[in-house]
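Feature request, filed as a ticket because there's no other form

It would be nice if the structure record came with a short human-readable summary line next to the tokens. Right now we just get the raw output. Example of a typical job, pasted below so the devs can see what we mean:
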Amino acid sequence: MTHIPPSGISSRKPAALPRVVIIGAGCIGLSLAWRLASAGCTVDVHDQGAAGLGATHAAAGMLAAAVETEPGEQPLLPLTLDSQRRWPAFAAELEAYTGLPVDLRADGTMQVALTRDDVEVLRAGYEFQRGLGLNLKWLSGAQVKEREPWLNPRAAAGVLGADDGQVDNRKLAVALKAAALKAGARLHEHSAVQALSVSGGRADGVVVGGVLRAADVVVLAAGAWSRQLAGLPDAAVPPVRPVKGQMLALRMDAAQPLLRHVVWPPKCYLVPRLDGRLIVGATTEEKGWDDRLTAGGVLALLEAAWRALPGVEELPIEEMWTGFRPGSRDDAPILGPVPDVDGLVMATGHHRNGILLTPGTADLVADHILTGRVDPLLAPFGIGRFQGPRPQNGTDQRGTDQRAIDQRVRA
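Raw output as currently delivered:
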């Protein structure tokens, strides 16, 4: 059996460690930078903005591999469960290395039904998820209110995902930035990569400020912006689009919070932080790069939160924001090497699972870069799954599905 060190990366490494450029300084890019720099690689991370202020900053930090699994997502489940299992060790290692908290909580996540119709929907999801072997428990209305007494008294039933939890994604970003820098990675904020350089079928660097920065490996971890990178061969353009989400934060009394668990009532989710913030999210909108908050989006979230937790009407609104999830064509991540472009590695398209999949992505992609091995967990998520037979009708290699998405996004 191959020994895996605490970091989760195989100890087998090539004689010469690669020079790595990572495009994107969100939780995925920063965690990869930490792992690779810790292994001895020369690592440069470029971001068009400040580190951690994209989808990582906008997220809710839920680690809900069980309750978030929906029909059609069975192929993704081994990867999400694996990454969820890595979280306790990953968080402990990160906090010990940096001295910074990430507030990992394993309180469990509750789905809640408020009406008879909600109960039927909840039961159907529960039976599907239990059929996958997930650790879930059905709760009566009384059991729901025993766990969370401030919920609507009419709460009729619930499902507890005992293995699900949360992490403070904004604290995570701060800690990952500190870890990457401490390990020796060089972070270039407000330093957009203009293009990928490919020579002889190999990625040999990136162009920044009109200058070629040489690299042995280039990792594309730019989230929803990944497909905008110039210089990508057609077959290497990831089918990633921005999926807009509106969210807000309310201020609770940290000593006497209204909620202690992550709670999923109908049409929203509620995530209580240790500092008293209550995150309310999130809309899912195909609006391209429109980052405006809307009255309808905020109203829908507040109404759904109020129906489940009436006490929110007394809470002050602390913050409202939007973010862009990186949604791929099948809403699963795009990970690993790119066929026919040596040295180019994908780590993008995580959609709503970016925080959950951070440890798994960092360990598995870093292991590939260091050893050349493609872990069986990684293999199903390569970009090659989108490359069917060459179209015969004049469409590009990204296919008509992606063209339709692009047209909808531009609209």
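Something like this underneath would help us a lot:
Confidence is low (pLDDT under 50) at residues 1-6, 10-14, 389-411.
The CA atoms of residues 244 and 290 lie 8 Å apart.
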